[in-house]
Amino acid sequence: MDIRIGIINSPRELGFEAGQSAADVEKIVGDAIASGTPHFTLTDEKGKRYIIATASVAYVELGTEETRRIGFVG
Question: Which are the contacts of 3, defined by CB distance < 8 A and separation ≥ 6?
Answer without folding.
Answer: 15, 16, 17, 18, 25, 42, 60, 61, 62, 63
